[in-house]
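testing teh design pipeline on a random one, pls ignore if ur not involved
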């Protein structure tokens, strides 16, 4: 076996001592010497992992990629060829986790050139577009004179249904007191990532006039064909990656002039006073603010909302009203996370737990969509993973236990709240079993330290649920954390 080869001993010793760059260098020399006489795909995988762990992306993108390209083209073994192509794509994803945009693109391009798999082609096309787009975004941000307290509402939206939801509901709710009107003394911006068709739809809508009244609107476009990778009602990994990569364009925009960022889902309603209260936390020592929320079934939620509030230009609604409306039309995404006797089909990958009681719903979560992030935090030196912000941004910004308390989870949603809504056609995998702490932990065992810390932060959603729990949230969370430490030690 290659690990027993004496020629590789210096690389293995260096890796044991944590000198991954040296290990990678030694392994490259070994691989080139052995390439023509013998070849071990496992060794190549290990060598690539060392380069990534040691952050030696330059040599990963040059020499390791060269070996992949040469061996993939020359090999006559179909299984080995398939393995190498798939591994090239995986290496691209791993490299993104270290902020290696250029290196990741080269691996995606290699996989796409050697395989007809549409996922590989989409990744290459996406990051070719992003390489161009990020320069445009940075130039636009650099033209803005830095002003203390500047704020940007960051959005990613495409498709007629989602653009219309964004304009007819989310933007209307931003016009409520304590949202955009509460920030009129600020330097306000919208940063919107969309397609050319989306841009036309936004600029033709009456709400666009209101957006321009309160803020400078910056619209950046990406190719329409990138959105064809999957149906939004059944999102694939590639769909989410497109969304997350474009949100990182918003981050790049804000970094240029030090703006705070509001990352608001396009299919949500924002309760009155939310933006002002989120910003208050950011400007009083916190780096980010977020919360969990109950997701509503779009097909039932929006008609009820329309019946109560009509189509007035301003959608002025409280957090309690939003929560009560959501309870009348809960999406499977949230009902599957309700800790109640009636829920006998717990969500397999639940990110929240909800315990309904008299007067409201207790909530805990492992993943948090950061609704507001300070400009100072965004300008830190951290790896841009180019993946969805609710799963990765907190882990990038809050890396040690001492950092975690700088992320504020809103304890009571009367001060700030949003309600997401999603089509009932969108389904989430379930367990066909009632809740138990071990079930939740099994679906969350890959979470990082900050995500587990989120679980320790109680949140309460004031509302009037008809459901009731018989379980104690603190006891359930304690048991979940014990299971997590056993299943996936940090």
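output:
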């Amino acid at each position: 076996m290659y690990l027993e080869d004496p020629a590789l001993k210096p690389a293995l010793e260096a890796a044991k001592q944590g000198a991954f760059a040296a290990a990678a260098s030694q392994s490259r020399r070994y691989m080139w010497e052995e390439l023509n006489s013998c070849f071990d795909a496992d060794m190549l995988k290990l060598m690539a992992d060392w380069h990534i762990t040691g952050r030696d992306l330059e040599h990963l993108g040059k020499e390791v990629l060269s070996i992949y390209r040469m061996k993939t083209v020359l090999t006559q073994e179909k299984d080995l060829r398939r393995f190498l192509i798939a591994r090239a794509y995986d290496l691209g994803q791993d490299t993104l986790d270290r902020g290696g945009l250029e290196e990741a693109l080269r691996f995606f391009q290699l996989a796409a050139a050697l395989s007809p798999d549409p996922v590989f082609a989409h990744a290459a096309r996406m990051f070719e577009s992003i390489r161009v787009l990020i320069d445009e975004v940075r130039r636009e941000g650099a033209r803005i004179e830095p002003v203390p307290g500047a704020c940007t509402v960051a959005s990613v939206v495409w498709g007629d249904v989602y653009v219309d939801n964004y304009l007819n509901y989310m933007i209307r709710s931003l016009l409520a007191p304590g949202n955009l009107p509460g920030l009129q003394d600020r330097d306000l911006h919208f940063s919107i990532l969309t397609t050319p068709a989306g841009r036309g739809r936004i600029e033709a809508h009456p709400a666009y006039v209101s957006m321009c009244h309160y803020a400078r609107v910056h619209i950046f476009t990406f190719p329409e064909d990138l959105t064809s990778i999957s149906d939004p009602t059944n999102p694939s990994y590639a769909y989410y990656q497109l969304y997350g990569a474009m949100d990182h364009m918003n981050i790049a925009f804000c970094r240029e002039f030090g703006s705070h960022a509001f990352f608001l889902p396009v299919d949500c309603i924002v309760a009155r006073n939310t933006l002002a209260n989120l910003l208050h936390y950011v400007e009083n020592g916190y780096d980010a603010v977020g919360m969990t929320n109950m997701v509503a079934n779009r097909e039932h939620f929006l008609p009820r909302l329309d019946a109560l509030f009509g189509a007035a230009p301003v959608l002025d609604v409280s957090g309690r009203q939003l929560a009560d409306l959501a309870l009348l039309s809960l999406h499977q995404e949230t009902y599957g996370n309700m800790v109640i006797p009636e829920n006998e089909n717990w969500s397999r990958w639940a990110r929240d737990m909800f315990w309904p009681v008299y007067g409201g719903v207790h909530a805990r979560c492992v993943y948090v969509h950061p609704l507001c992030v300070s400009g100072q935090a965004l300008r830190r030196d951290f790896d841009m993973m180019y993946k969805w912000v609710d799963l990765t941004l907190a882990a990038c910004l809050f890396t040690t236990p001492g950092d975690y308390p700088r992320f504020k989870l809103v304890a009571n949603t009367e001060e700030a709240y949003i309600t997401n809504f999603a089509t009932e056609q969108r389904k989430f995998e379930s367990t066909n079993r009632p809740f138990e702490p071990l079930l939740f932990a099994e679906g969350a065992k890959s979470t990082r330290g900050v995500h587990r810390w989120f679980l320790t932060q109680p949140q309460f959603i004031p509302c009037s649920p008809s459901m009731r729990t018989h379980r104690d949230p603190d006891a359930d969370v304690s048991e979940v954390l014990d299971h997590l430490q056993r299943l996936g030690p940090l």
